[in-house]
Amino acid sequence: QKEVEQDPGPLSVPEGAIVSLNCTYSNSAFQYFMWYRQYSRKGPELLMYTYSSGNKEDGRFTAQVDKSSKYISLFIRDSQPSDSATYLCAMSLYNFNKFYFGSGTKLNVKP
Amino acid sequence: NAGVTQTPKFQVLKTGQSMTLQCAQDMNHNSMYWYRQDPGMGLRLIYYSASEGTTDKGEVPNGYNVSRLNKREFSLRLESAAPSQTSVYFCASSLHTGEGYGYTFGSGTRLTVV
To answer: Is pLDDT above 80 for B98?
Structure first.
Protein backbone atom coordinates (compact mmCIF):
# COMPACT_ATOMS: atom_id res chain seq x y z
CA GLN A 1 0.00 0.00 0.00
CA LYS A 2 1.32 3.43 -0.94
CA GLU A 3 1.77 5.96 1.83
CA VAL A 4 -0.15 8.56 -0.17
CA GLU A 5 -2.88 7.87 -2.70
CA GLN A 6 -4.05 10.37 -5.28
CA ASP A 7 -6.42 9.92 -8.20
CA PRO A 8 -4.39 10.55 -11.38
CA GLY A 9 -7.33 11.97 -13.33
CA PRO A 10 -7.38 13.60 -15.77
CA LEU A 11 -10.02 15.92 -14.42
CA SER A 12 -11.62 18.18 -17.01
CA VAL A 13 -13.82 21.11 -15.94
CA PRO A 14 -15.24 24.25 -17.60
CA GLU A 15 -13.80 27.65 -16.76
CA GLY A 16 -15.33 29.08 -13.61
CA ALA A 17 -16.05 25.71 -12.01
CA ILE A 18 -15.09 24.79 -8.46
CA VAL A 19 -12.43 22.09 -8.48
CA SER A 20 -11.85 19.59 -5.70
CA LEU A 21 -8.59 17.64 -5.58
CA ASN A 22 -8.00 15.00 -2.93
CA CYS A 23 -5.42 12.73 -1.36
CA THR A 24 -5.68 9.99 1.23
CA TYR A 25 -2.84 8.73 3.37
CA SER A 26 -2.13 5.84 5.66
CA ASN A 27 0.33 7.20 8.23
CA SER A 28 -1.48 8.98 11.06
CA ALA A 29 1.82 10.54 12.17
CA PHE A 30 1.99 12.91 9.20
CA GLN A 31 1.98 16.49 10.46
CA TYR A 32 2.78 18.70 7.48
CA PHE A 33 0.68 18.78 4.33
CA MET A 34 1.49 20.52 1.08
CA TRP A 35 0.10 21.02 -2.39
CA TYR A 36 2.39 21.56 -5.36
CA ARG A 37 1.43 22.65 -8.85
CA GLN A 38 3.40 21.34 -11.80
CA TYR A 39 3.04 22.72 -15.29
CA SER A 40 4.01 20.54 -18.22
CA ARG A 41 7.78 20.08 -18.51
CA LYS A 42 8.41 22.20 -15.43
CA GLY A 43 9.39 21.46 -11.84
CA PRO A 44 6.76 21.46 -9.06
CA GLU A 45 6.11 24.75 -7.28
CA LEU A 46 4.67 25.05 -3.80
CA LEU A 47 1.05 26.19 -3.80
CA MET A 48 -0.23 25.67 -0.26
CA TYR A 49 1.20 24.48 3.04
CA THR A 50 -0.68 23.53 6.20
CA TYR A 51 0.33 22.15 9.55
CA SER A 52 -1.86 19.54 11.27
CA SER A 53 -5.62 19.85 10.84
CA GLY A 54 -7.81 22.66 9.63
CA ASN A 55 -8.26 24.92 6.66
CA LYS A 56 -6.03 27.45 4.96
CA GLU A 57 -7.15 29.90 2.31
CA ASP A 58 -5.05 31.82 -0.21
CA GLY A 59 -6.97 33.70 -2.85
CA ARG A 60 -8.94 31.21 -4.95
CA PHE A 61 -7.27 28.24 -3.26
CA THR A 62 -8.33 26.50 -0.03
CA ALA A 63 -6.50 23.58 1.54
CA GLN A 64 -8.27 21.32 4.03
CA VAL A 65 -6.83 18.64 6.27
CA ASP A 66 -8.99 16.05 8.02
CA LYS A 67 -6.61 13.99 10.14
CA SER A 68 -9.38 11.83 11.58
CA SER A 69 -10.19 10.59 8.07
CA LYS A 70 -6.58 10.82 6.81
CA TYR A 71 -7.81 12.93 3.93
CA ILE A 72 -6.63 16.22 2.48
CA SER A 73 -8.26 18.40 -0.15
CA LEU A 74 -7.44 21.35 -2.35
CA PHE A 75 -10.32 23.48 -3.61
CA ILE A 76 -9.95 25.90 -6.50
CA ARG A 77 -12.71 28.48 -6.91
CA ASP A 78 -13.47 30.23 -10.20
CA SER A 79 -11.05 27.94 -12.03
CA GLN A 80 -9.11 29.43 -14.93
CA PRO A 81 -7.42 27.86 -17.97
CA SER A 82 -4.12 28.91 -16.38
CA ASP A 83 -4.88 26.48 -13.53
CA SER A 84 -4.46 23.59 -15.99
CA ALA A 85 -1.57 21.60 -14.52
CA THR A 86 -0.79 18.54 -12.47
CA TYR A 87 -1.39 18.95 -8.74
CA LEU A 88 0.72 16.94 -6.33
CA CYS A 89 0.00 16.47 -2.68
CA ALA A 90 2.87 15.87 -0.28
CA MET A 91 3.18 15.23 3.42
CA SER A 92 5.80 14.60 6.04
CA LEU A 93 6.38 13.62 9.61
CA TYR A 94 7.32 16.07 12.33
CA ASN A 95 11.06 15.73 11.71
CA PHE A 96 10.66 16.70 8.07
CA ASN A 97 13.46 14.47 6.81
CA LYS A 98 11.33 12.68 4.30
CA PHE A 99 8.48 13.79 2.09
CA TYR A 100 5.86 11.50 0.65
CA PHE A 101 4.34 12.63 -2.61
CA GLY A 102 1.13 11.58 -4.28
CA SER A 103 1.38 10.63 -7.93
CA GLY A 104 -0.46 13.80 -9.01
CA THR A 105 -3.85 14.69 -10.51
CA LYS A 106 -3.88 16.24 -13.96
CA LEU A 107 -6.39 19.10 -14.22
CA ASN A 108 -7.64 20.62 -17.47
CA VAL A 109 -9.75 23.78 -17.28
CA LYS A 110 -11.52 24.38 -20.58
CA PRO A 111 -12.19 27.97 -21.74
CA ASN B 1 17.95 35.22 -9.65
CA ALA B 2 17.97 31.75 -11.26
CA GLY B 3 16.83 29.61 -8.28
CA VAL B 4 17.72 25.98 -8.99
CA THR B 5 19.48 25.24 -12.27
CA GLN B 6 19.79 21.72 -13.66
CA THR B 7 21.93 20.56 -16.56
CA PRO B 8 21.49 18.96 -18.98
CA LYS B 9 17.76 19.31 -19.72
CA PHE B 10 17.66 16.20 -21.92
CA GLN B 11 19.95 13.19 -22.26
CA VAL B 12 19.88 9.84 -24.04
CA LEU B 13 22.25 7.16 -22.77
CA LYS B 14 23.03 3.64 -23.85
CA THR B 15 22.79 0.89 -21.25
CA GLY B 16 26.02 0.75 -19.27
CA GLN B 17 27.11 4.33 -19.95
CA SER B 18 27.75 6.73 -17.11
CA MET B 19 26.79 10.35 -16.65
CA THR B 20 26.52 13.08 -14.05
CA LEU B 21 23.51 15.33 -13.59
CA GLN B 22 24.44 18.75 -12.32
CA CYS B 23 22.43 20.97 -9.97
CA ALA B 24 23.23 24.42 -8.61
CA GLN B 25 21.22 26.82 -6.44
CA ASP B 26 21.84 30.49 -5.76
CA MET B 27 19.51 30.98 -2.78
CA ASN B 28 22.04 30.16 -0.07
CA HIS B 29 19.97 27.10 0.89
CA ASN B 30 21.52 24.53 3.20
CA SER B 31 19.71 21.40 2.04
CA MET B 32 19.55 19.88 -1.42
CA TYR B 33 17.68 16.87 -2.83
CA TRP B 34 17.48 14.62 -5.87
CA TYR B 35 14.10 13.16 -6.86
CA ARG B 36 12.96 11.05 -9.75
CA GLN B 37 9.46 11.27 -11.21
CA ASP B 38 7.87 8.36 -13.02
CA PRO B 39 4.31 8.04 -14.35
CA GLY B 40 1.98 6.81 -11.63
CA MET B 41 4.76 6.76 -9.02
CA GLY B 42 4.96 10.38 -7.95
CA LEU B 43 8.19 11.94 -6.80
CA ARG B 44 10.61 9.60 -5.06
CA LEU B 45 13.63 10.78 -3.12
CA ILE B 46 16.95 9.36 -4.33
CA TYR B 47 19.47 11.15 -2.10
CA TYR B 48 19.59 14.30 -0.08
CA SER B 49 22.19 16.51 1.55
CA ALA B 50 21.06 18.20 4.75
CA SER B 51 24.09 20.48 4.75
CA GLU B 52 27.42 20.92 3.02
CA GLY B 53 29.58 17.87 3.60
CA THR B 54 26.74 15.42 4.37
CA THR B 55 24.68 13.11 2.17
CA ASP B 56 22.03 10.52 2.99
CA LYS B 57 20.07 7.89 1.10
CA GLY B 58 16.45 8.43 0.28
CA GLU B 59 13.81 5.99 -0.85
CA VAL B 60 15.43 4.74 -4.09
CA PRO B 61 19.25 5.17 -3.90
CA ASN B 62 20.37 2.00 -5.69
CA GLY B 63 22.33 2.67 -8.89
CA TYR B 64 23.11 6.29 -7.96
CA ASN B 65 25.81 8.25 -6.20
CA VAL B 66 25.88 11.88 -5.17
CA SER B 67 28.40 14.56 -4.37
CA ARG B 68 27.78 17.78 -2.46
CA LEU B 69 30.58 19.73 -4.09
CA ASN B 70 29.98 22.90 -2.08
CA LYS B 71 27.00 24.73 -0.63
CA ARG B 72 25.69 25.62 -4.09
CA GLU B 73 26.18 22.40 -6.03
CA PHE B 74 24.83 18.86 -5.66
CA SER B 75 25.49 16.33 -8.42
CA LEU B 76 23.90 12.95 -9.15
CA ARG B 77 25.93 10.25 -10.90
CA LEU B 78 24.76 7.16 -12.71
CA GLU B 79 27.75 4.82 -12.93
CA SER B 80 26.22 2.22 -15.24
CA ALA B 81 22.89 3.35 -16.63
CA ALA B 82 20.02 0.88 -16.92
CA PRO B 83 16.68 1.24 -18.77
CA SER B 84 14.93 1.28 -15.36
CA GLN B 85 16.62 4.63 -14.73
CA THR B 86 14.71 6.25 -17.57
CA SER B 87 12.91 9.03 -15.74
CA VAL B 88 12.64 12.75 -15.13
CA TYR B 89 15.09 13.85 -12.46
CA PHE B 90 14.45 16.89 -10.29
CA CYS B 91 16.83 18.68 -8.01
CA ALA B 92 15.38 20.72 -5.15
CA SER B 93 16.71 22.85 -2.34
CA SER B 94 15.46 24.26 0.96
CA LEU B 95 16.84 26.48 3.67
CA HIS B 96 16.97 23.55 6.12
CA THR B 97 16.22 19.85 5.92
CA GLY B 98 12.59 19.24 5.15
CA GLU B 99 10.72 22.54 5.40
CA GLY B 100 8.34 21.76 2.58
CA TYR B 101 7.22 25.32 2.47
CA GLY B 102 10.75 26.22 1.41
CA TYR B 103 11.28 23.64 -1.36
CA THR B 104 12.40 25.07 -4.70
CA PHE B 105 12.60 22.64 -7.60
CA GLY B 106 14.62 22.87 -10.77
CA SER B 107 12.99 22.36 -14.15
CA GLY B 108 14.20 18.77 -14.49
CA THR B 109 16.45 16.53 -16.56
CA ARG B 110 14.70 14.11 -18.90
CA LEU B 111 16.83 10.99 -19.15
CA THR B 112 16.24 8.09 -21.51
CA VAL B 113 18.34 4.94 -21.25
CA VAL B 114 18.17 2.68 -24.31
So the answer is: no
